[in-house]
Amino acid sequence: MDEMKYIHSMNWHEYFTCDADAGILYFKERPREMFSTLRGWRVWNAQYANRAVGSPNAAGYLMVRLNKKRLYVVHRIIWEMVNGPIPDGMEVDHENTAKSDNKISNLRLATHSQNGFNKRKPRTNTSGYKGVTFHRATRKWSSQIVANGKRIHIGLHESKDEAYAAYKVAAKNIHGEFARVA
To answer: How far apart are CA 154 and CA 4, in angstroms?
Structure first.
């Protein structure tokens, strides 16, 4: 059996405190030796120490800049502060799909595919149900699902409610705990 590989992570505890139940990160007070000037140290701590961090990016995820360099995703930092490094090939999934809800109870490890299973129905959906479309040629409702990168036809149905019921069963069977049916 292969051992899990871990992506190198920083010691986040050096920079942040975390209220994992609330899903909030706070900057820690920085020590004097991190700054070239006394004024810089005082100003930074007055402005940022013990304040919540994170600004939403274009996709809606909370981000934080560290040491004027790189942007980091807040939910990954919270996960690592509570659980340790994220294994190679894994992602942190928001179970309820709310990208700014970083409560530890809402975060879980997932593969890229599992994370994709947990998506909401597309905005372009016209049936009102995830996995359900109208099949014009047969004048019936079609249900389909994606698994392992391939679209699987579940069946044609007289009503969109029947098609959706078939989609929900298939989603639970194929995607398990990561199935999002709404």
So the answer is: 35
With a cut of 70, say whether residue 6 has pLDDT above it: no
Q: Which helix (H) or strand (E) holds 165?
A: helix 160-175
- DSSP-derived secondary structure letter, 45: H
Judge whether 26 and 51 are in contact, CB under 8 Å: yes
Residue identified by tokens 């994370």 is 115
Q: Which of 44, 46, 45, 66 is closest to 54 using CA atoms?
A: 66
Residue 32 DSSP symbol: G
CA distances 138 to 135, 145, 157, 158, Å, are 6, 19, 10, 10
pLDDT digits (tens, 9 = 90+) for 12-57: 999 999 999 999 999 999 999 999 999 999 999 999 999 999 999 9
- For residue 101, the 8-state DSSP code is -
Residue type, 27: F
Provide the β-strand partners of residue 52: 26
Check if the beta carbon of residue 47 is closer than 8 Å to that of residue 130. no
The Cα–Cα gap between 117 and 146 comes to: 8
